[in-house]
Amino acid sequence: MGKNVFVYLNSVFQSPFIPMKMHSLAACVLAATAWLPLAASVTLAPVFTDNAVLQRGKSVTVWGKADPGETVSVAFKGQTKTTQAGADGKWAVALAPMQAAAEGAVLTVTDGKGKPTALKNVVVGDVWMCTGQSNMEWPVRTALNPEKDIAASANPLIRHLKIAKTPADSPQDSVETFGWQEASPETTGEFSAPGYFFAREIQKEIGVPIGLLNISYGGTMVEAWMSEQAVKSNAQYKGVQDKWQRTLDSFPARQAIYEKKLAEWQAKKAGGKSAGRAPLKPEGPGSRQQPSSLYNGMLHPAIPYAVAGILWYQAEANAARHTEYGDLIRGMIRQWRDDFKQGDIPFYYVELANNKRAGDLTGYQWAYMREAQRAALQEPDTAWATAIDIGESNNAHFKNKQALGHRLALTALGNYYGKNVEWMGPQFEGASFADGAATLKFTHADGLRLEGRGDAFQLAGTDGVYHPAQAKVAGETVIVTSKDVPAPTMARYCFATDPKGPILRNQAGLPASPLRTDTFPEPEPKK
Fold first, then answer.
1. 50: three-class secondary structure by DSSP
2. How much of the chain, in percent, has pLDDT values that exceed 70?
3. For the segment 102-158, what is each residue's pLDDT rounded down to a tens digit?
4. 3-class secondary-structure state, position 474
5. Residue of 344, 424, 346, 443 lying closest to 385 (CA atoms)
6. What is the largest CA-CA distance in the chain?
7. pTM summary value
8. How confident is the model at residue 38, as a pLDDT?
9. Which residues are within 8 A (CB) of 74 and not within 5 positions of it... i.e. 6 or more apart?
10. DSSP state, residue 460
11. Which of 174, 208, 455, 457 could be 468's S-S partner, Cβ–Cβ 3.0 to 4.6 Å?
12. In b/e form, how buried is each residue of 73-110, taking b as 16+ CB within 10 angstroms?
């Protein structure tokens, strides 16, 4: 195993969410599935291991490295493709599109001397890339009452591969992984929770193998997932660079504080005193916050693995810079699609859940970020799942990932798979103001209802000052009034970082996204 393995394991083992009994299992799994050389000098890209899921219905690129000029053959399910490694040692072949196949088969790679190496139990189905920050990374065992789900998870047609947390300064071809693992009570607890609950529903509904390519890292910014060229060519490049320069400028002072705390922690530990958790290293050069670092170290080694689509949960780390996010996320989507060369790969993202943020001094920062996230919808083949009602005020990593996986599954079923399902919550269509009331019109509003109580609805008049309001459903509209606003001209619903009910739902139980009819900028922080 390379240095990155130990860096990754160290970051994993420091997590308070990893029970000690899991540490040795995780280490053994990683050691057993690290990227290893095949016959002679031939190697496969690290995303190819035993138990892999290959994408059905698309040309499937298989690639790796060998000695320059060496002949390499790849055989799978009656196809044999042969090529020669280039002067840089890189080789790649393209398998013709295949139908789904649940029965495992052998993928054989043969070097120029005729020595074969076999990957066992390879199936063909749909591969979904699960990426973003911690709410995508968080494993099944941290979800709501996970014991029952884990105990019942045995399904060899759901498989998961986790890429190690690996920032890098330049694009890499290699990265450590946990290898492709079949869902079982022994493995599922470490799968991406949104990914697993998504896959469980899709696999049951569609009936083909589902692979989850988990490329996620908590606390990360969108620019870290973009290539250097994509960042530099983005309209928000100056803001990204300014943010990174501030991080670099403050790093020496933060590093000195860290080293002092680390020495104190080590002294306590050596003296047998209760030391608690070790202090965390400050973000700086070579960290997850460096622009392009995660694209280089984690995504690039997986390009161009054939996938059905992308599931994305990220925006929290960029919330303070929400005015930049629209350009950045659109640039990332376009760049990824160019890199993977599979057309407009479906991109389904999660609208940020409700959560009380200590650093949000206005109480509206995430409301503006949710609006910024919608810029992704300007790109083709994009859609979203709303999580405004399943977050937890005091837990950024809310536990109800089952509901999140369900909503992502509905999004895929209604868009990618063409199923006749309601995948959207009520969608705001427009507002009218008359007779002391606001009338909000919605589509996707069959069975429209309000659930719970609170100040989610608010009204304002020409003075722009919002007041709590009362709401009632009338068909596909909501009538909103407030005794404090006799002549309303503006309305809001759930427009806050951590809004409190009532939640507007349709017959499918899906919530409406936050909305507002004004165009006010984020207010100044409270003094």
1. coil
2. 92
3. 999 999 999 999 999 899 999 999 999 999 999 999 999 999 999 999 999 999 999
4. strand
5. 424
6. 85
7. 0.93
8. 52
9. 62, 80, 81, 82, 93, 95, 107, 108, 109, 110
10. E
11. 455
12. bbbbbeeeeebebeeebebbbbbeebebbeebbebbbb
d(CA 476, CA 440): 9
Burial 330-341 (b: 16+ CB within 10 A, else e): bbbbebbbebbe
Measured CA to CA, the distance from residue 403 to residue 398 in angstroms comes to 11
Find where tokens 């929400």 sit: 322
Comparing CA positions, the residue from 297, 289, 283 lying closest to residue 318 is 289
pLDDT at residue number 527: 65
Amino acid 522: pLDDT: 97
Of residues 365, 370, 5, 367, the one with CA closest to residue 175? 5
Tokens, residue 116: 């074969």
Which element (helix H / strand E) includes 407?
Answer: helix 401-415
Please name the residue that has the structure tokens 């304002």. 460
Q: Which two tokens stand for residue 202?
A: 């899709």
Taking the alpha carbons of 423, 390, 401, 378 in that order, is the dihedral positive or negative?
Answer: positive
The model's confidence at residue 17, banded by pLDDT at 50, 70 and 90, is: very low
Q: Would you tell me the crossing angle of helices 237-270 and 322-340 to the nearest 10 degrees?
A: 90
Cα torsion 353, 354, 356, 362 to 10°: value is 100
Distance CA 89, CA 107 (A): 21
CA-wise closest residue to 311 among 405, 377, 219: 405
The token pair at 226 is 């973009």
* Overall residue count recorded for the chain in this entry: 527
Q: How far is CA 383 from CA 199, 412, 417, in A?
A: 17, 9, 13
- How is residue 160 written in tokens? 């998961």
pLDDT at 248 over 80: yes
- Chain center to CA of 137: 7
Instruction: Confirm if 143 and 399 have CB atoms less than 8 A apart.
Output: yes
Q: What is the pLDDT of residue 23?
A: 38
Q: Residue 165 pLDDT > 90, yes or no?
A: yes
Can the peptide bond before residue 304 be classed as cis, meaning omega within 30 degrees of 0? yes
Structure tokens at 220: 């990360």
| Per-residue model confidence (pLDDT) at position 526 | 75
DSSP 278: P
Amino acid identity, residue 194? P
Integer angstrom CA distances of residue 219 from 172, 333, 395, 472, 474: 21, 19, 14, 39, 42
Q: CA 401, CA 407: separation in Å to the nearest integer? A: 10
- The amino acid at 200: R
Tell me what the pLDDT averaged over the chain comes to: 93
What gap in Å lies between CA 277 and CA 431, rounded to an integer? 52
The H-or-E segment that residue 419 falls in is: none
